[in-house]
C-alpha cells in the first residue's frame, strides 16, 4: 500500500483526489433540480440576479474563509457592514457638498470607497489584536464588537437611514460591465486574488499552519500573532468592499437593518464550501460555491412562494447537512 | 507462586501487514511482579495494550484463570480485573480525586443522584490502604505527579483490580517517590495483586520485579527470574547485538565553538546553564524527564524567556525572542513532541517539509510548487520515507516516517546548529538506525548538534561528550572513560554529587 514516491510531479489522480469536488457537485445538483422545477429559474436575468445577491455576502464570506482557516471566527461582520457603510456614505456626502453638477462627481465616490476599506481594515485590526495579543477567544471578542459596531452605527445615524447625495454612487451600485453586474466581477476578482493568496503564498501557508496547530506553527518560526491578526484585517477589508457595493445598490444605508444577520450567511457559505469550522485548511472557491448555493436556495424558496419565515429553517438544515456530509468524506 | 493468572498463547499483532508482535507465549503468575523490558518498538506496549483491551490480537489466544477470554475493550479488561496505568495520566484535572476514581462508574443513591458520601468513603479507604496522604475531595490539579500516580493506582484498586499493568511509572518521579511507589507495589503483591512493570530503567526493574521478560523487535527473547539476570545481561538481551551495529562510528569533531550558552536561567526551570558546542560535534544531553533538557532547547529557541544568560552563535552574541529569530540565527530544532509541536499531521508531506523554509521556494511572492515538490521528493528518497504520495496527509504515515518528515522540515532551512530532542522516540529500530546515520552525516558535514535523549544507549552510542542535567542544572560533563550508563544515572538521580 505504501510506496516510495520518487517522482517530482503530482499525478492527475493525486490532484483529483485533493480537489474537494463535493461542494461543486452539490451546486450542480442544486442548479439541475432548480432548473427542472422552475421555469423562471432558467433565465439569464435570474442567474445574474442570484449571482449579484450572492456577491454581497459572498465577498464578506471570502474574508471569513481566512479567519476560519486561521482557527478563528468573526461574528462582527454584519454590524461592521452597517458601521462601515454608514461612514462611507457620510464621508461621500461631506466630500460631495452641494447638489447639481457637483453631485455627479466621481472622485468623492473613489475617496469614500478607499476610506471605507481603510476603516474596515482598522476595525478588523482591532478584532485581531484583541484576539491575538489580548489572547481572548475570537468568539468573545467579535461577539463584543458585534454589539459595539452596531451600536455605533445606530448612534451615528440616530437609528435612522442615510441617503447618498452623490448620483455616481447609485449609478455604481447598478452598474454593469459586459452586461454583468459589477459586484459579481468584484466577487470573482477577489476570489481569484484570495485563492492565490491562500494557496500560493507564504502568508497563505502560514494561515493554514496557525489554524492547524498554533504550537507547531510557533515552533516552525511562524509569526503566529501577526498571521492571525491579519486574517481579521482581511475580513474587515472585504466587509468594507461589500458595504460599499451593497449600500450603493440602494444608494442609502439603514443603520438598523443593514448587514443584520449577514455574519451567519457568511459563515454558512464558508462551511457549505467545505472549509472545516476548526480551520487548518479550506477553499476560497468552495466559499464562492457555498454563497451561490445559499442564494439559489433563497431564490427557489421565493419562487415557490414558500413562506419567508420558513427560509431560515431550510438554510439551517442545509448548513447542518453540509457539515454532516463533509464529516463523512 | 500459586497459580497462573493470565496465559498468552502465540499472541501476535499485525498493522497493515507489519507484525509488531509475533508468537508471544507467556504465563503471568498470580501475585508476582513481572518486568517487561525491550527497546522502543520491541512490542512491550503492544502486549500491554492487548492485555488491557485497547488492541485486539491478530493471532493467538488469551486465557485468564484458565478460561479463554476475548478482551475487546477497556471495559472487558476491567471486568476481568485488568487495569492499565498509562504513562500519560488519564485524570481530569478539574475534577476531584474521588470523582476521577469513579469517573464513568459513579455510585448513585436510590433516587438516582450521585452518592458522594459513599464514593468519598470508598476513595478514602483505597487511599488509606495505599498509605497515601491525599484528601479524596482534593482537585487533581492541586496534586503533584507522585500523588497523581497514586490516584491512578487507587482508580484501579477501587474496582478490585487483580492485574495492574504499569507503563513506565517512574519516569516523572524522584528517587524518594520511586522508593515509596515500590513499597506500595510490594504491599499490593503481598495482598495477591499481580503487577506487570514495563520500564526502560533496568536498575528499577532489577530492584522491584520477580521475573523479567525481554522482547526484541516484536518477538520473545527470554523470561527469567530477576535474580538470574544481571543488569548488563538485560541490556545485552534487549539490544541483541553489539551497539556498533546500530550506531555509526563516533564523532571526535572538535572545531571552533559554534554555540556558546552562558548562565541561562529561567526562574523555577533552569539555573545557570552554561555550555559550549563545537562545530561538527554531537553533544549529548542526558537526565531524567523533567530535569530541564527540553527547557534548555526551548529557551535557546526563544519559546521561554530567560531572566539571565547569553547565547553566542559562532562567536557573535544573538538575541532570540522567538523561534523565528532562532531560525534566522541558523538554529534548527527537532521537537520531542512530534505531533504537539513538530509537524502538522493534517497537512501534506510537501507542506510540512517547506513549512519553515517556504521563503526558499518563493518566486515573485508566489510559491514555486514544482520546486517545492521536488525538494520534498528529494527528502523522501534521501531518508527513505514510506508514504502513499507527496500530498498524503502525515497522519497516514507511521511514527518513524513522520519523524523523518519532521527532520526534513527542520533541515530544509539549512541550520548550522541543530538541536534534536528525543529524535527516535516512538520509532521502530529501522528508522532509528536511519536517523542516527543522518544525524551523524550532518555532523560530518559540519553541522553542530545537541542530542537530547532519555535513552542512555543512544546518548552513549552517538556522543563522545555528555552533559547531565538534574533539577534545572547541569550537574556533570562526562567524557572518555567516565562516559557510562552508570555514571550518567548516578548524576541524573543525584546519587553522586560532582559538578
Description of the molecule:
The complex is a heterodimer of chains A (329) and B (499). With 329 residues, chain A is mostly helical. Chain A is 72% helix and 3% strand. Chain A has helices at 12-18, 22-37, 44-69, 77-96, 107-132, 138-157, 167-174, 182-200, 202-212, 214-219, 224-250, 262-272, 284-303, 308-328, and strands at residues 161-163, 176-177, 180-181, 252-254. A two-stranded antiparallel sheet of chain A has the order 1-4. A two-stranded antiparallel sheet of chain A has the order 2-3. In chain A, α2 packs parallel to α13 (284-303). The longest helix of chain A is centred in the last third of the chain and has 27 residues, at 224-250. A 6-stranded mixed β-sheet of chain B has the order 6-7-8-3-9-10, sandwiched between helices. By secondary structure, chain B is an alpha/beta fold. The longest helix of chain B is centred in the middle third of the chain and has 16 residues, at 175-190. Classes of the chains: A mainly alpha (329), B alpha/beta (499). Chains A and B meet through α1, α8, α9 and α10 of A and α11, α12, β18 and α14 of B.
Which features characterize this protein?
heterodimer; A: 329 residues; mainly alpha; two-stranded antiparallel sheet; 14 helices; 72% helix; disordered N terminus; B: 499 residues; alpha/beta; six-stranded mixed beta sheet; 18 helices; 33% helix; 26% strand
Amino acid at each position: 500500500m505504501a510506496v516510495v514516491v520518487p517522482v517530482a510531479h503530482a499525478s492527475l489522480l493525486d490532484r483529483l483526489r485533493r480537489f474537494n469536488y463535493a461542494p461543486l457537485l452539490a451546486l450542480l445538483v442544486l442548479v439541475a433540480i432548480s432548473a427542472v422545477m422552475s421555469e423562471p429559474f432558467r433565465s439569464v436575468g435570474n442567474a445574474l440576479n442570484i449571482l449579484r445577491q450572492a456577491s454581497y455576502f459572498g465577498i464578506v464570506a471570502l474574508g471569513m474563509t481566512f479567519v476560519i482557516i486561521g482557527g478563528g471566527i468573526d461574528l462582527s461582520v454584519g454590524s461592521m457592514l452597517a458601521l462601515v457603510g454608514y461612514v462611507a456614505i457620510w464621508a461621500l456626502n461631506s466630500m460631495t457638498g452641494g447638489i447639481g453638477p457637483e453631485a455627479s462627481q466621481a472622485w468623492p465616490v473613489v475617496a469614500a470607497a478607499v476610506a471605507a476599506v481603510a476603516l474596515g481594515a482598522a476595525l478588523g485590526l482591532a478584532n485581531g489584536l484583541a484576539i491575538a495579543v489580548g489572547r481572548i477567544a475570537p468568539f468573545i471578542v467579535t461577539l463584543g464588537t458585534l454589539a459595539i459596531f452596531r451600536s455605533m452605527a445606530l448612534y451615528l445615524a440616530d437609528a435612522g437611514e442615510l441617503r447618498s447625495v452623490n448620483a455616481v454612487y447609485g449609478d455604481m451600485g447598478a452598474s454593469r460591465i459586459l452586461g454583468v453586474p459589477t459586484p459579481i466581477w468584484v466577487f470573482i476578482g477577489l476570489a481569484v486574488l484570495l485563492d492565490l493568496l491562500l494557496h500560493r503564498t507564504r502568508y497563505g501557508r502560514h494561515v493554514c499552519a496557525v489554524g492547524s496547530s498554533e504550537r507547531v506553527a510557533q515552533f516552525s518560526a511562524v509569526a503566529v500573532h501577526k498571521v492571525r491578526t491579519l486574517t481579521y484585517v482581511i475580513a474587515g477589508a472585504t466587509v468594507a468592499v461589500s458595504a460599499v457595493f451593497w449600500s450603493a445598490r440602494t444608494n442609502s444605508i439603514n443603520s438598523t437593518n443593514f448587514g443584520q444577520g449577514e455574519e451567519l450567511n457568511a459563515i454558512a457559505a464558508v462551511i457549505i464550501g467545505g472549509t472545516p469550522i476548526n480551520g487548518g485548511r479550506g477553499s476560497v472557491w468552495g466559499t464562492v460555491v457555498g454563497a451561490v448555493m445559499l442564494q439559489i436556495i433563497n431564490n427557489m424558496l421565493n419562487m415557490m412562494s414558500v413562506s419567508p419565515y420558513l427560509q431560515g429553517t431550510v438554510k439551517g438544515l442545509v448548513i447542518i447537512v453540509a457539515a454532516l456530509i463533509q464529516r463523512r468524506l | 507462586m500459586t497459580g497462573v493468572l493470565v496465559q498468552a498463547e502465540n499472541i501476535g499483532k499485525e498493522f497493515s501487514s507489519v507484525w509488531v508482535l509475533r508468537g508471544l507465549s507467556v504465563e503471568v503468575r498470580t501475585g508476582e511482579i513481572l518486568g517487561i523490558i525491550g527497546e522502543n518498538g520491541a512490542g512491550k506496549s503492544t502486549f500491554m495494550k492487548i492485555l488491557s483491551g485497547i488492541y485486539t490480537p491478530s493471532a493467538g489466544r488469551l486465557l485468564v484463570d484458565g478460561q479463554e477470554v476475548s478482551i475487546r475493550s477497556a471495559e472487558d479488561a476491567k471486568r476481568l480485573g485488568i487495569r492499565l496505568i498509562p504513562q500519560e495520566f488519564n485524570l481530569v484535572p478539574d475534577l476531584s480525586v474521588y470523582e476521577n476514581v469513579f469517573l464513568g462508574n459513579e455510585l448513585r443513591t436510590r433516587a438516582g443522584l450521585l452518592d458522594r458520601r459513599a464514593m468519598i468513603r470508598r476513595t478514602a479507604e483505597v487511599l488509606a490502604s495505599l498509605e497515601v496522604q491525599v484528601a479524596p475531595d482534593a482537585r487533581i490539579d492541586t496534586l503533584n505527579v507522585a500523588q497523581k500516580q497514586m490516584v491512578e493506582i487507587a482508580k484501579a484498586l477501587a474496582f478490585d483490580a487483580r492485574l495492574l499493568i504499569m507503563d513506565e511509572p517512574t519516569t516523572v518521579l524522584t528517587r524518594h517517590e520511586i522508593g515509596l511507589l515500590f513499597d506500595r507495589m510490594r504491599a499490593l503483591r503481598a495482598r495477591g495483586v499481580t503487577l506487570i512493570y514495563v520500564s526502560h530503567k533496568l536498575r528499577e526493574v532489577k530492584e522491584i520485579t520477580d521475573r523479567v521478560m525481554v522482547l526484541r523487535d516484536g518477538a520473545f527473547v527470554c523470561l527469567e527470574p530477576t535474580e538470574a539476570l544481571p543488569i548488563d545481561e538485560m541490556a545485552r538481551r534487549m539490544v541483541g547485538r553489539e551497539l556498533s551495529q546500530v550506531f555509526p562510528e563516533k564523532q571526535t569533531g572538535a572545531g571552533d565553538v559554534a554555540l556558546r550558552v552562558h548562565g541561562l536561567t529561567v526562574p523555577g526551570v533552569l539555573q545557570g546553564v552554561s555550555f559550549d558546542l563545537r562545530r561538527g560535534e554531537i553533544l549529548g544531553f542526558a537526565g531524567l524527564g523533567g530535569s530541564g533538557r527540553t527547557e534548555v532547547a526551548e529557551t535557546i529557541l526563544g519559546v521561554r524567556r530567560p531572566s539571565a544568560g547569553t547565547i553566542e552563535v559562532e562567536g557573535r552574541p544573538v538575541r532570540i525572542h522567538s523561534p523565528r529569530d532562532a531560525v534566522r540565527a541558523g538554529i534548527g530544532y527537532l521537537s520531542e513532541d512530534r505531533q504537539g509541536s513538530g509537524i502538522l499531521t493534517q497537512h501534506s508531506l510537501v507542506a510540512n517539509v517547506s513549512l519553515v523554509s517556504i521563503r526558499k521556494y518563493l518566486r515573485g511572492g508566489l510559491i514555486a510548487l514544482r520546486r517545492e515538490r521536488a525538494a520534498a521528493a528529494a527528502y523522501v528518497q534521501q531518508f527513505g520515507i514510506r508514504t502513499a504520495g507527496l500530498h498524503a496527509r502525515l497522519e497516514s504515515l507511521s511514527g518513524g516516517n513522520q519523524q523523518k518528515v519532521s527532520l526534513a522540515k527542520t533541515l530544509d532551512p539549512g541550520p548550522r546548529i541543530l538541536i534534536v530532542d528525543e529524535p527516535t522516540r516512538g520509532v521502530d529500530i529501522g528508522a532509528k538506525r536511519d536517523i542516527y546515520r543522518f544525524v551523524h552525516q550532518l555532523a560530518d558535514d559540519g553541522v553542530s548538534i545537541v542530542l537530547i535523549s532519555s535513552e542512555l544507549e543512544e546518548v552513549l552510542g552517538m556522543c563522545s561528550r555528555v552533559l547531565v542535567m538534574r533539577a534545572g542544572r547541569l550537574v556533570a560533563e562526562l567524557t572518555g572513560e567516565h562516559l557510562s550508563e552508570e555514571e550518567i544515572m548516578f548524576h541524573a538521580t543525584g546519587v553522586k554529587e560532582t559538578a
